[in-house]
Amino acid sequence: MATVIIGAGIIGSSTAFYLSESLTTAPSDIHLIEASTELFASASGYAAGFLARDWFSPSVASLGALSFDLHKELAAQEHGAEKWGYCRSTGTSLAVTKGNRGDEWLREGTSRAEAAATHDFKDGYGPAWLTRSKNGRVEVISEDDSTAQVYTAISDPLRLSRFLLSTCLEMGVNLHQPSRPVSLNKDSDGTVTSIVITSPDDPQTTITVPCSRLIITAGAWTPRVFKTLFPTSRKSIPITSLAGHSLLVRSPRWNIGDELKTSGGCHAVFTTDETGYSPEIFSRVGGEIYVAGLNSATLPLPELATDRKIDPKSIEVLKTTAKRLLGRDEEDDLEIIREGLCFRPIGGKGTPIVGKVEDEALGLKTTGGVWMAAGHGAWGISLSLGTGKVMSEMVEGRPTSADVSRLRL
What we know:
6-stranded mixed sheet
């Protein structure tokens, strides 16, 4: 059955990946449509890559556990440590002022892991690359009698996304890029038969792609795609965008060999800043350290991910944070590898949408249905593989590996 997936980011690529592994859908019948001229130009390529197993609310918990296990399984099967930097990670809270803990923002639910309040913290020394002030207090997230490093990990999302997509293409999946959806064609009975796409560079030239099943995985752009294809539908897609700036740096104090000996892997540090935001710092295999946490819900979503405009002032704030938390005295020994900006899709309920859009809400008929997987917020990378697997099962009418019944539109 001809399956069209709109959005070739990590959610779309994961869906195509697991759908290709089924015995029902031929990879050559799968079409990935990506509007951006640069693959993985938003969260799929510029997010932190932090993975967690049990940091989720009840409605997402089953999907979170499945996805974390799939990340671990895929890394073991495909040498993920070498190919995309998969590594165990220890979650750490750094309190920098008296009375404040670095995980307070976690407990308030303003960013990653509202459910982190269910975890305990114990005193710890933290990574060698972290600079602590005289009164700073480091605590390591723990779960019962086990440290959280068995429940959290880190990957380079860009390299993981590239692996998933390249594997799909090797199996015979079709990639249309850059292309954007324009409209749907219907037969005399009003049933969708194909989708019309065009290139942003040549909007007058169109291509018709057969379509029996449609899956929308366009991240923060999902509401726009839905409105384009279903202009008469009264259904509102409750997804907004959250812009987040980031830095990727190298520090002479980050050595994966030393960290593996002392703590078993990489570190994720959650802390606070006197300017009022909550920095997130993640070490990765390969000597990279990712610095982020400066988010904005008011920065407008661009037409394409590649149209993003990095704010120099936001980058300077992150550089100041990096120097304070990663630097040493007055030495300027941090190497800036990359400045980034991505737009995360935020679900209206604070949870992703994973499920079918009923034909009644579309105003037309479909053979294999219209499906949606978007709105994962800060957890898109962590939930990616689980979402892809569950979506592949749902569209083929198979029992799902995780309970996503409360994530329907």
